[in-house]
Amino acid sequence: MCHSSTTAIVPGRQLLPTNVKPTHYDLTLEPKFDTFKFNGDITISLDVKSSSDFISLNTLELELLETKLVTDKGEFKPIEVKYDDDDQSSTFKFEDEVLKTGESVKLSIKFIGELNDKMAGFYRSTYQEDGETKYLATTQMEPTDCRRAFPCFDEPNLKATYDISLIADKKLTCLSNMDVIDTIEVDETTKKVVFNTTPLMSTYLVAFIVGELEYIESDYKFRDIPVRVYTTKGYTEGGKMSVELAAKALEYYEKVFDIPYPLPKMDMVGIHDFSAGAMENWGLITYRMVDLLFDENKSTLATKLRVSEVVAHELAHQWFGNICTMDFWDSLWLNESFATYMSWKCCNHFEKDWKVWENFVGDSLQSALTLDGLRSSHPIEVPVKRADEINQIFDAISYEKGSSVLRMLANWLGEDVFIKGVSNYLKTHSYGNATTEDLWISLTEVSGKDVKSTMKVWTTQVGYPLVTVNEVKDSKITVEQHRYLTTGDVKPEDDTAIYPIFLGLKTDKGLDESIVFNERAIDLPYEDFFKINGNSNGVYRVCYEPERWQKLGSSASKLSVEDRIGLVADAGALSVSGYSKTTNLLSLVSGWKTETSFFVWDEIITRISSLRAAWLFEDEKTRNALKSLTGNLVSERCHSSGWIFDKDENFLDQRLKALLFGAAASSGDLKVLASIEKMFAEYISGNKDAIHPNLRATVFNSIASKGGQLQYKALLNIYENPQSIDEKITALRALGRFENIDILNDVLESLLIGKVRPQDIYIPMQGMRAHKLGVETLYSWMTLNWDKIYKLLPPGLSMLGSVVQVCTSGFTTMDKYEEIEEFFKGKNTTGFNQGLAQSLETIKSKSNWVTRDSKDVEKWLIDNGYLK
Ligand code: BES
Ligand code: ZN
């Protein structure tokens, strides 16, 4: 293994002092399931960078027992140990001048930690097996919880090698990043499992697991490297799809990056309690159960797509992030955007039929533009000053905007050139760290284009441009760029950046991608047919004059699927912000009933649903009219394609059927509702095949929304005894759909008393967010139970922000805006301040939207026969 380049320490990009640099950790841990503690013994080898008398490293909720420092001059005990709560660091002070520049020393610490239930650090996961409660010990270090598992220099650019050993009962499986070199008997019942030395790596990627586990190995052979899925008893078969994809994806990435996978094995483990979706620990990827397991007969296509995405994403990190790591968290996008971009490239390679890049325009690009349309968004490269700020930046900017910017860049450079540059970048910084600047350098070298100055604006500025198009017929087209804000209230100080915009001009002559529009405004020659942002390759929105919208609406055949998705999305977003009328959107989509693409339909339905969500608190007549509008758009098509699925049917045709069925149900389509009743009745009377998995969410949600205690019991029963993990989650989400206050209160009550795993508590809340009573009930529950919620989901971990967001963002009026603001006034919002600000701004934009356009929408609904 080659551990060539180490990283220079850049002062100011670390939160810890830089007087020493760790090179190697020798760590032994012994979890105790009877007391939920663990014993630890660590020796850290350090290079002394500057003479001093102290060492600071990170610890959190660790009890330090004995510390000694071994130097050339002998052994030293610290004369003082100081803990800094704010920095989560322990500082050992020694006698004067113990540490001399250029020396290598060893710091040994014995310690005790808590095998906590917070899904952070070295923690316990609890599950039931054959009526018995069982425990598994596992880790989640990213971003800054390694310090809960052992004392460490918890910074991404302080890479070191690790020798890890685990002490545990002989019947338990012990896993870590590396393969096992030795298993030593400690006593009759206990063993010590010793793992091979890791490559140079960051603390946040260290992992170890102790538990009763089973595994399956891939049939597909990836060199001679075993690729396995581990689960607790009885779940391994569900890992079949993931394990085969993983073996193939490793081979794929090896080829694409031209860098071999450096470890001797790849284990992927399903964990019952897991805060994120999955974690890319080097050689030992951990997953939430739903994001790893797939059952060909019982799971949905959406699950198939999600599981493939997650697996492909975490494997991409084995190169992006693990071999080459961002220098500091302010460049998190280098990890997450690349893993996201590469995961789609990988899925596209293996599953052409899924048309994942079309999917990307409707999903990733839109979530990026949605979040980044808020003033409370942040640039892709975002300053981070404190550890507790880091969790919040794992958001749509770091994942979706970043990957959208990469897609735009790859399109500009050509995908092959882009990948070549990326491969060079990875090779140059292997086993080290890199900055965005380093990436631009590699891409500039390989492409000969000025990548840095073109891309810098995109990664350092918050927001994105709106390109406004004005036409002088037969003469010219003027395009002008200004900042886009969802609230529509751009001020001069918001609008200082000029973006290099890849204009992508689509005309009857084809797509001209040569124009980089880098000024406030330019003129283009007039064209009878044209569209800006061809194939939606750019990260911006376009606003046309009303006649042009109409022309584009009737030119669907000249536009690609990506174009059509982009047009619907832009029309939708521009009506929210007031740059164009909502009726523009309504006219556009009303003309597209013959659309054939699943993704375009998905975008149409999403935009109409956002309209319905913004009108949630408006009068019932208008809301019903919007419902019939949905029905008018989808019912006919839904009836004609039906809702029977054939296994051999094209992936997207199946997804379209499921989508139309769901939309028809939400519009109150009688035929669909009758069939839902029938399926559900058959299902609960014992025919488990009565509901096709692809229809399950619609059936459960619809039954719940009209249901009472009987249906509640039935859905609870499905939640407790599911046929598959994704069915369990679907039932849980549907519990929030009951429009019955007693049931909703009961559901909310169950979240705080451990009936629902803390990792899942936001799921029924998502169901509640979908209806008026739910939105109101959810918010009053949150305000009444704030202290309990805060205790259950401490802000240093990642979930509180999402909970605050689901509990507040469903409202649509300024009264509620003020009420929410008032509630949080004087409370410490560290760890969720961004989520809260984004939620408030979303409410404001909905309120503005309704106030501005409700009359217009009403008139359109009357003119088009939906409202009397
Ligand atoms: N590195 C993240 C996991 C993570 C997220 C750790 C937040 C700490 C805080 C992982 O690679 C990841 O991105 N997981 C995603 C799934 C992915 C397919 C987008 C997740 O957890 O949802
Ligand atoms: Zn990731």
From TrEMBL:
Residues 529-844 form the ERAP1-like C-terminal domain. Its EC number is 3.4.11.-. Residues 242-458 form the Peptidase M1 membrane alanine aminopeptidase domain. Zn(2+) binds at residues 313, 317, 336. Gene3D superfamilies: 1.25.50.20, 2.60.40.1910, Neutral Protease Domain 2 (1.10.390.10), tricorn interacting facor f3 domain (2.60.40.1730). The record marks 399 as: Transition state stabilizer. The keyword Metal-binding applies. Binds 1 zinc ion per subunit. One of its GO terms (biological process) is peptide catabolic process. Its cofactor is Zn(2+). Residues 21-205 form the Aminopeptidase N-like N-terminal domain. It is an enzyme of class 3 (hydrolase). GO terms for molecular function: metalloaminopeptidase activity; peptide binding; zinc ion binding. The active site is at residue 314. Keywords: Aminopeptidase, Hydrolase, Metal-binding, Metalloprotease, Protease, Zinc. InterPro entries: Aminopeptidase_N-like_N, Aminopeptidase_N-like_N_sf, ERAP1-like_C_dom, M1_APN-typ, Peptidase_M1, Peptidase_M1_aminopeptidases, Peptidase_M1_dom, Peptidase_M4/M1_CTD_sf. It comes from the Eukaryota. GO terms for cellular component: cytoplasm; membrane. Belongs to the peptidase M1 family. This is Aminopeptidase.
